[in-house]
DNA sequence: CTGGGGAAGGGGCCC
DNA sequence: AGGGCCCCTTCCCCA
């Protein structure tokens, strides 16, 4: 089992704790270490995502390629801005930095949530992003969340992270308890589908096929990354030298080690 | 140094 | 409420 994800370089700050260690240890680790700012900055969606004419670092073709175009990251706009809300729900740096949400609109939009009525919010949202499909539900969540009195914080007993819903907390706790164990190698996972994906590494099953070539993948996200290799347009651009890359991780690597600022 | 594949983690949404 | 799935993201290795 040579995969490197089990043996990480000690010099690289770990983004996530080793939960399997955690399970039988005295829980000394903390999740409060500051999030890698370089990554955070690179991950922050620029206003240009909403304005394709501007630039850098920009998702050049999100709008062209993503058939599943999602609405803006409303979840990320939840009431962290309200002082009371911050007290109740402030998440760790890790959480605020690694969301898988699509780019959230640039500030100052978020700052208006604590003082804006849900109805005007909705009007603004529809005006800014016509065609958004899931707004009603999201706004319902916002309107509930914007009232600090109506919210409770659910804390993880293992790491003290706070969640707005019991369901979210339960989901998180699974990452500590790792209830899904691989019958082949004994590796444990937080969710059944993670285990399912892992089992494919044993069986060799690759249900996700590339429509452009003969390659197949065990993981849909990996197929998605692969599909970018068939495109002429590279998605991520370095703000300093304007080079483009197919993956954000390549851009990060480039920025951290190679980019001298000049065009290449 | 870059490009790409493999594996895994987490939050959110839908049913 | 819980399971399943989706999507995004990260990390590591190798060519």
The number of helices is: 11
User: In one word, what is the shape?
Assistant: flat
Secondary-structure element sequence? Answer: HHHHHHHEEHEEHEEHEEH
Largest sheet: 2 strands, antiparallel
The mean pLDDT is 53
Oligomer: single chain
Q: Tally of extended strands?
A: 8
> Would you tell me the structural class of the helices and strands?
mainly alpha
Domain C2H2-type: 154-177, 180-207, 208-235, 236-264
Region (Disordered): 1-21, 79-116
Keywords: DNA-binding, Metal-binding, Nucleus, Repeat, Zinc, Zinc-finger
GO molecular function: DNA-binding transcription repressor activity, RNA polymerase II-specific; E-box binding; kinase binding; zinc ion binding
Summarize the structure.
Belongs to the snail C2H2-type zinc-finger protein family. Keywords: DNA-binding, Metal-binding, Nucleus, Repeat, Zinc, Zinc-finger. The protein has 264 residues and is mostly helical.
Task: Write up this protein.
The protein has 264 residues and is mainly alpha-helical. It is 36% helix and 6% strand. It has eleven helices and eight strands. A two-stranded antiparallel sheet has the order 1-2. Strands 3-4 form a two-stranded antiparallel sheet. It has a two-stranded antiparallel ribbon with strand order 5-6. The longest helix is centred in the middle third of the chain and has 12 residues, at 166-177. The radius of gyration is 21 Å and the shape is flat. The structure holds a DNA duplex (15 and 15 nucleotides).
């Amino acid at each position: 089992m040579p995969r490197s994800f089990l043996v990480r370089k000690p010099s690289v700050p770990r983004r996530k704790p080793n939960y399997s260690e955690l399970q039988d240890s005295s829980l000394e680790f903390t999740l409060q270490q500051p999030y890698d700012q370089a990554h955070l900055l690179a991950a922050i969606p620029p206003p240009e995502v909403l304005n394709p004419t501007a630039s850098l670092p920009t998702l050049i073709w999100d709008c062209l390629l993503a058939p599943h175009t999602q609405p803006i990251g409303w979840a990320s706009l939840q009431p962290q801005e309200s002082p009371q809300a911050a007290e109740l729900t402030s998440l760790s740096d890790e959480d605020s930095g690694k969301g898988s949400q699509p780019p959230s609109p640039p500030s100052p939009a978020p700052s208006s949530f604590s003082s804006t009525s849900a109805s005007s919010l909705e009007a603004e949202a529809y005006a800014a992003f016509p065609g958004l499909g899931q707004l009603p539900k999201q706004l319902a969540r916002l309107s509930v969340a914007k009232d600090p009195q109506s919210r409770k914080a659910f804390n993880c007993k293992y790491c003290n992270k706070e969640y707005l819903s019991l369901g979210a907390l339960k989901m998180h706790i699974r990452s500590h308890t790792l209830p899904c164990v691989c019958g082949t190698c004994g590796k444990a996972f937080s969710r059944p589908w993670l285990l399912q994906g892992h089992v494919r590494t044993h069986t060799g099953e690759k249900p996700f096929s590339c429509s452009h070539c003969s390659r197949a993948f065990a993981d849909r996200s990996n197929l998605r990354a692969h599909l970018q290799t068939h495109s002429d347009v590279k998605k991520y651009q370095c703000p300093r030298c304007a080079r483009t890359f197919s993956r954000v991780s390549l851009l990060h690597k480039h920025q951290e080690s190679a980019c001298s600022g000049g065009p290449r």
